Amino acid sequence: MRRRKQYVHDNCPRCNAPLEHLVHILTCPHPEVRTIISDLLIKLEAWFAQEDTYPSLTPILIASIRSWLLDPYGDEPAFLWPSPLLCEAIITQQQVGWYAFLMGFIANPIVSLQNSYYKSIDSKKKGTTWATRLIIKSWNLVYHLWTHRNSVLHETQALDALSGVTTLRNSIIAEYALGQDSLHRVYSRYFSVRLETLLQKHMDQLKQWFLVIRSGREAIHVSMTDPFTTNATLRNWIGLPPIHT
Ligand SMILES: [Zn+2]
After folding, report:
1. Could you count the other beta carbons within 10 Å of the beta carbon of residue 52?
2. Which of 21, 86, 130, 153 has a CA positioned 20 to 30 A from the CA of residue 174?
3. Distance 26 CA to ligand 1 centre (A)
4. pLDDT tens digits, residue range 43-66?
5. Taking the domains of the chain in order of start, what are their residue ranges?
6. Angle ∠(134,135,137) on CA atoms, nearest 5
């Protein structure tokens, strides 16, 4: 018989949103992420200036990317279009999407527009070179947000080796002392093992034991108050659902 996987968690390690995917990694509402995004967009704006980007194009691109990062499922920002060509180019990109833009799909009319601008200012630069460099800039932006998420995830996992272990052991001792109490009898086998034996078990088994008992108590609202009651990182580490306040 194959045992069902009961606790599969791929929550965001930063804000604990369920079902983490790349769109979320880029648009996570966590305050640290928002700060990183602001910094990255300031740098991108500076890069646009440095590369002699068509001046009317820059604010529209920045505002569109910012708007997508803030709310990927929201509406496109409203613009006063400086020219019909620019409007057309941006609408083409909107159809491809800003996620695609960040992944390196820059709509051709934008590249043509940039190329025409270079010509108009007698620059020897090419729109295609600009686009290639912009793709690298976009990948860097994605990479930064991805790396940040990984560092937070690593910190969460590092709890295993740090304070989390002691906190977990203390909470297990307290849960054990409380005993089966008002829990259903199906839980009795969890208390049949001696506490000393239980505490010597592998970390994964300790977490599993605690998850079962704590979820059971929370389900019938008789949970005790300890760091696992309020600390979102600790709850995420164990696999307890986020606290609803
Ligand atoms: Zn998040």
Report:
1. 14
2. 153
3. 9
4. 999 999 999 999 999 999 999 999
5. 22-156, 162-238
6. 60
Write out pLDDT tens, residues 91-115. Answer: 999 999 999 999 899 999 999 999 9
Measure the CA–CA gap between 69 and 49, rounded to whole angstroms: 21
DSSP annotation of 245: -
Percent of the chain whose pLDDT exceeds 90: 62
Tokens 């304070």 found at = 163
Amino acid identity of residue 125, one-letter, is: K
Calculate how far, in angstroms, residue 209's C-alpha sits from the geometric centre of ligand 1.
27
How far, in Å, from the CA of 144 to the mean position of ligand 1?
15
State the 10-residue block means of pLDDT for the chain, 245 residues long.
Answer: 45 77 89 93 97 97 97 94 96 95 94 98 97 94 90 70 79 93 88 94 90 90 87 84 72
The tokens describing 7, both together, are 């606790």
